[in-house]
Amino acid sequence: MKTPLFKTMTMLFFGMTIITQVKADINYANNTGFSISNTSESDAPVEVVYSHFIQHVDMWWPKDHTWWNGTLSIDEFAGGCFCEKSETNSAAHMQVSYLEPNKKVVMTGGLGPLQEMGMYGALTWQFEPIADGSNSGTRVTLTYHASGNIHFSGKFASLEQAQGLVKVVDKVQAQQLNALTTFSNDN
Length: 187
Prior knowledge:
Helix content: 25-40%
Number of domains: 1
Structural class: alpha+beta
Strand order of the largest sheet: 1-2-8-7-6-5-4-3
Shape: globular
Number of strands: 10
Radius of gyration: 16 Å
Largest sheet: 8 strands, antiparallel
CATH architecture: 2-Layer Sandwich
CATH class: Alpha Beta
CATH topology: Alpha-D-Glucose-1,6-Bisphosphate, Chain A, domain 4
């Protein structure tokens, strides 16, 4: 059975374009891992953006980036869960490994299909104030460093296939980050 997340990643892989306000960089990508960074800005203060990130993840995280369109939550402590629940289904998307409120959150694990590949990484959310004249907003940088053999149906991915997957992951993460900063601007 194909999950909504799998369908989204498949559509992105085959040419769907996402328009975002995000600066995205693929730092490196090969068939044993990758590093990507995305940056987006909000007009809201750091405390507001961080609060939306932790307390309202279910309201801004795109539902097509979940397993079952379930309810999402982030436990605000080291060892906490970024989890999804839907009726009797549940998933631990990542585990909070470092938390410095209003500044930095590091989550570890593999997101979506990367879990089943055995990929493991660190997803870092960095929150920084922006002060430019009369406006004080927030810059959020999302960095994902992941390691493990990229494979499809148990067959080791070629370099080209791996780089294609990383482009999809980068686009998906840009969309997630943009959803947070847009939600923070609107709320």
